Amino acid sequence: MSEPQLAPTAVRPEPAPYTLWQLVLYFLKLGTVGFGGPVALVGYMFRDLVERRRWISEEDYKDGLALSQLAPGPLAAQLGFYLGYVHYGVIGSTLAGIAFVLPSFLMVVALGWAYQLYGGISWMQAVFYAVGSSVIGIIAFSAYKLTAKTVGRDRVLWGIFAVVALYTAWTETEDVLLILGAGVLYWLLKSAKRPGRVQASFFALPADTLTHAASGAVTAAGSSTLWELLLFFAKAGAFVFGSGIAIVPFLFSGVVKEHGWLTDSQFVDAVAVAMITPGPVVITTGFIGFLVAGFSGAAVAALATFLPAYLLTIVPAPFFKKYGRRPGIAHFVTGVTAAACGAIAGAVFVLGKRSIVDLPTLLFALVTLLLLWKVKKASEPVIVLGAAVLGLIVYPLTH
Fold this sequence. Notes:
Elements: H1 20-33, H2 37-52, H3 58-70, H4 75-118, H5 124-151, H6 155-171, H7 176-190, H8 207-221, H9 224-239, H10 247-258, H11 264-276, H12 284-314, H13 317-323, H14 327-355, H15 359-374, H16 380-398
Helix pairs in contact: 1-4, 2-4, 2-5, 3-4, 3-14, 4-12, 5-11, 5-14, 5-15, 5-16, 6-7, 6-14, 7-14, 8-12, 9-12, 11-12, 15-16
């Protein structure tokens, strides 16, 4: 006797427990004071929007995190796009994304102006020496909370988590096929039903929309250099997985080796700027664009980087919202989420290896972790500011 088919049930969407303006203000604040890179930022969103304010359900958050891991581009920005879409659709996604990215964009443009005016940022080494290691403590704590909440006590999920974490730490890259495979594996283990077909139209990228929007900005500027910036950074935003981890070597190869836009030392400074400013780490593209072609270069580079990620989030978002609760897809998303947590944990190791280089930096990371663990109202921006001040004092003594 065949198993009865379950008819889809119409569910009336619950009204949002917040206004669109409140959501925009939240992402504006997060983009202004959210330090720690993508791992910490996705942790902040879970803490603030799911646990504390209860604006977003845990299921919607998991769907957004899974989708953000599957699609190329900056992880934290994509999750912000998706969470903005949950209750307010395309307009919510658009405004949340702009509010999230704009503060850090303006900061890196200002730093780019100062960098060119004063011939470099000599004090940055001292600041980054302490801030970089302190940020590792923030990232590690956020990764712990996110993993404990999403993986739970499921041994299979912990196995997936461990494999992906080790792979990411060893190779220093994120493999989307591994993450997809984790979702398929968990679905196979948990579901006996054959998965239905997914129409490609949910995932089709409207390339003409991207080309029209980006080309408008370049045409207004009228520069061949801007066209080169547009094409290069659009490729980075559309085809590079792993966000802050994978995009750095990709950018180095193109910016320094292929195009010769920056020197080695200028590129390192660009990455450092992104790490000490709040918001998405990939905003370093704005700093690079400014050094190459001024404000127009910064705007084109940032637009080209974030627009593909935006489209690759909102196009499949209706599918995740409509079908994400079905058992087969829910199992797949759960497996992908566990793999995403593993990739985040591996990223903590990779970033920590670069930032914790001696005893003082180890102490900065451990003290930050201890403060966040023991002091419930500890403020990450205050911790980062304190670390920056201490770096200016400690760095000259140790170097």
